[in-house]
Amino acid sequence: MADRNCSIEHNMAAHTGWTVFRHDEHGDPVGDPLYIAGNGEVVDCTAESMEAAAFISGWLTPHQEVTGTTSREVAATQP
């Protein structure tokens, strides 16, 4: 997850939307974004962050059910 400048560090008043990609084992983005918000114009960071979090939660839940793992278990296996 990153803003349009490929970072999570930004001024909330200048937030232009989150973008979420899947990443490979090296941390490189793979394919098209799973989620992208805004059109380059400033959007409400808090509201849009909540929308992005809801998307991520909704996307992860079925994947966890299929694999039987929790996000903590997955995170524990990551370097």
Question: What can you tell me about this protein's structure?
Answer:
The chain contains two helices and two strands, in the order E-E-H-H. With 79 residues, the protein is of the alpha+beta class. The chain has one domain (12-76).
Topology:
Elements: E1 19-23, E2 29-36, H1 45-67, H2 71-76
Antiparallel strand pairs: 1-2
- Beta-strand fraction estimate: 15-25%
Going across the major beta sheet, what is the strand order? 1-2
Indicate the radius of gyration in whole angstroms.
Answer: 14 Å
Major beta sheet summary = 2 strands, antiparallel
Structural class: alpha+beta
Detail the poorly predicted runs.
none
Mean pLDDT: 77
What order do the SSEs take from the amino end to the carboxyl end, as H and E? EEHH
Number of domains: 1
N-C termini distance: 18 Å
Q: How would you describe the shape?
A: globular
Number of strands: 2
The portion of residues assigned to helices is 25-40%
Number of helices: 2
Features:
alpha+beta; 79 residues; two-stranded antiparallel sheet
TL;DR of this structure?
This protein has helices at 45-67, 71-76, and strands at residues 19-23, 29-36.
